[in-house]
Amino acid sequence: MAPLNEEQLDQKKRERKEQIMRAALKVFADNGVKLTKISMIAKEAKVSHGLVYHYFDSKDEILYESIEWGTEENRVAQVFNDLNESGKSPLEKIKAFTQFAFSESDRWVTQSVFRIMQHLTVADGLPAHISELVNNTGQLYIEALYPIFLEGQKSGEIIQGDAEELLGVYLTVLSGIMADDPSFWKENTEWKVEILSRMISVR
């Protein structure tokens, strides 16, 4: 078998690093940042503990690069483009996004990033560069959800008031639930999303 050339080696390295970042996103999302250990990421990625350190110097570096990777290539924008083209009403879009964010599917990278954001939003003592990344990433979701909330208010589906404040309350509730008990979303997700949606909907 012929040895790999430089381009093939670089491709193999990128794939291995992506494999680790995919695993890291899942582990961080399921366990929260504080409880996640390098060994857990290595196990999920099916690689050795040492190989993880070959690509990353620390858990913070894995977290930062994984979130960056998970939000690049317009992944978040695509999620909302799909929602906006779905023909759903504003409230149904919010329900669909909430269920999407906390359920497993083929697009779990974006879901995991959102769930990690919920953990980090209420975390203390974050390094400055991670805190900035959290704020920037969170803004992506706010900018995408805000027009849906406004549309829902105009259509009479969503309660009146400051739409930005209402969105903030909704995301804060989701953050609190995910940071406190991620297993909350493991069962009866659709029913729980329905309950949460009632806090913003006109009954």
TrEMBL record:
Q: Which Gene3D superfamilies match?
A: Tetracycline Repressor, domain 2 (1.10.357.10)
Q: Source organism's superkingdom? A: Bacteria
Concerning SUPFAM superfamilies, the annotation shows: Homeodomain-like (SSF46689)
Q: Which InterPro entries match?
A: Homeodomain-like_sf, HTH-type_Tx_Regulator, HTH_TetR
Annotated HTH tetR-type domain ranges read 14-74
Q: Which Pfam families does the entry link to?
A: TetR_N
Start-end of DNA-binding region: 37-56
Asked if the record carries the keyword DNA-binding, the reply is yes
The GO terms describing molecular function are: DNA binding
The alphabetized UniProt keywords are: DNA-binding, Repressor
Q: What is this protein called?
A: TetR/AcrR family transcriptional regulator
**Organism listed in the record:** Salicibibacter cibi
